[in-house]
Amino acid sequence: MTISRRDLLSALGVAAGTAALSPLGVAPAGAATTPNKPVNVYKPYRYQLAGDHHIHTTYSRDAMYETKTQVKNAETNGLAWMVITDHGATAHQKLSIDKITPEINDARRSSKVHIFQGLEWNVPGAEHATLIVPPTPATVQLLKDFEKNYDGQVLADAKITKGLNTSDGEQYAVAGIKWLGKQIEAGLIPSALIFANHPARKGLDSPHEVRAWRDAYPGIAVGWEGAPGHQMAAHPAVQAAVTASGSTSTNGRGYYDNSPNADSFPGYAPTATENPYRTYGGFDWFTAKVGGLWDSLLAEGLPWWITANSDSHTNYNDSLIGAHLVKNNPGSNDSSWYNLYGSYGAPIDSGTKQATYGDFAPGAYSSTIVSSISNSYSGIMASLKAGNIIVTHGGLIAGADVRVYSDKDKRGVTTGGRTFANKGDNVTATITVSLASIANGSGSIPKLKNVQLIGGPVTGPVTDKDTMLAPQTSILKNFEVTGDNLTFEFTFKNVQKSFYIRYRGNNGVNLDKDGLNPKMDVMGNSNPWLDLWFYTNPIFIDVI
Questions:
Q1: Interval 266-288: pLDDT, tens
Q2: DSSP for 143-212?
Q3: What span, in angstroms and rounded, lies between the C-alpha atoms of 97 and 136?
Q4: N vs C: which end of the chain shows fewer Cβ within 10 Å?
């Protein structure tokens, strides 16, 4: 069905051409009903720090890079921070953490990049998630204890749960987040953050699980990857190399090429026009679908942030090969080797570029940009927790300055923030985009075509925890980028109820027939350099 701009605006009570909004929701439980201090107050942040919270080394069974190599990759691509997130496993818990720790410490002494030691958590009952903790004397032991007691693979190996993704594991996921909260309360660590990784890839992260993680302990489980890694996986050149190798598989962008299984949430069933198991403009369906699961979480009036990362295991056209794949090398074709040593060892240089690899190096394509008051571990953690984050692919934009202010709060707030307005006030939302000025990895300078303002009413807590739609959320305005006008403004007049807004933008390629939403990425034929997007995190406006 074709939806007109007038229809889109009227879905939120906005009169076309007048920019007046009367959100239809009610304030959520716990929302401010009296004047309060704004969150993420608008100001020119000194530091705009690009990073990647999903990176693997040879201490993951299916990855190959040495720690120093991934740090060098991050430096080369201009990252200010990175998180080493090797897969949770019994051998990783017992062996790998102790082995990688001195390597990370050595890298910290020689690099300006902030290197977090984290974990790709096998979430019991669900998919994967990044665990980020700052460097402290307690960090290493905390990671080992958390993995031993709450990692889904470790629990399954110990026969504590029925399997890695079975529903009996859900309680352990919540318990693990609460345990992290207790370590913060005890003063062992100052903070801990969890972001769900590639959440729609296998359909395992049900809406009620996501809400349970978010609500288990304030400020720990704070978001998910809006866009997964492995963005080269469906490039025609990669698919051609995969086919030439004798494989019959067809790659999806991000390796989103799955179908529902017995453990998948039934609500994620593909239809004739939509498939949750595919990416859209390189973004996860949870995020890309306007009025989808992300918006259903935001419509509760509660924070939930997005990121974008490399998930670097094997980077496209690298000549290195995992040591376990090289004939006559120690551990070659021996699946037990990792279990014995927690690593297959350093990779071997084959001298030939490997075109079947589907990843980008950290920072080479995806960027999670945080605005921070300090270039420090604590500053980066605080900004991630606060949602002061913009994500972009392929260097589509150099950055964006977002400000939302009301008659009551003239200074306003920025991404991840919360501002306040009285009933009847006007609320103004602005975004100023900094265009790309240097060529990206494809050799071209990206051109931004559209900037979209998306918004919806805050309707409060849901009765059904598996709610996955926010039908009143829509694209309120599609701004076309022309000439030197890079600041886009929209005023909500005479506001009556609480609402939220967010932005995204694109290079105008591979859009649907209405020219508004990304098309579903094509299996085996999706060039990530041709279809570029950026997304901001939301801002909440509490009408009091």
A1: 999 999 999 999 999 999 999 99
A2: HHHHHHHH-HHHHHHTTSSS-SS-GGGHHHHHHHHHHHHHHHHTTS-S--EEEEESTTSSS---HHHHHH
A3: 15
A4: N
3-state SS class at 103: helix
228: left (phi over 0), alpha (psi -120 to 50) or beta: beta
Instruction: State CA 347 to chain mean position distance.
Output: 28
Contacts of 56 (CB under 8 A, 6+ apart): 62, 63, 65, 70, 84, 85, 86, 87, 120, 311, 312, 313
CB 380 within 8 A of CB 33: no
Instruction: Summarize pLDDT for 136-180 with one digit per residue, the tens.
Output: 999 999 999 999 999 999 999 999 999 999 999 999 999 999 999
Q: How far apart are CA 38 and CA 108, in angstroms?
A: 36
- Tokens 């720990």 identify what position? 220
CA R_g for the chain: 23
Give the CATH architecture of domain 47-235+279-369. Alpha-Beta Barrel (3.20)
Give dist(CA 260, CA 331) in Å, integer.
34
Cβ partners under 8 Å of residue 236, min gap 6:
524, 525, 527
**Exposure of 147 in the CB half-sphere (CA atoms within 13 A):** 27
| Cα–Cα distance for residue pair 236/469, rounded to 1 Å | 34
CA distance 147 to 160: 14
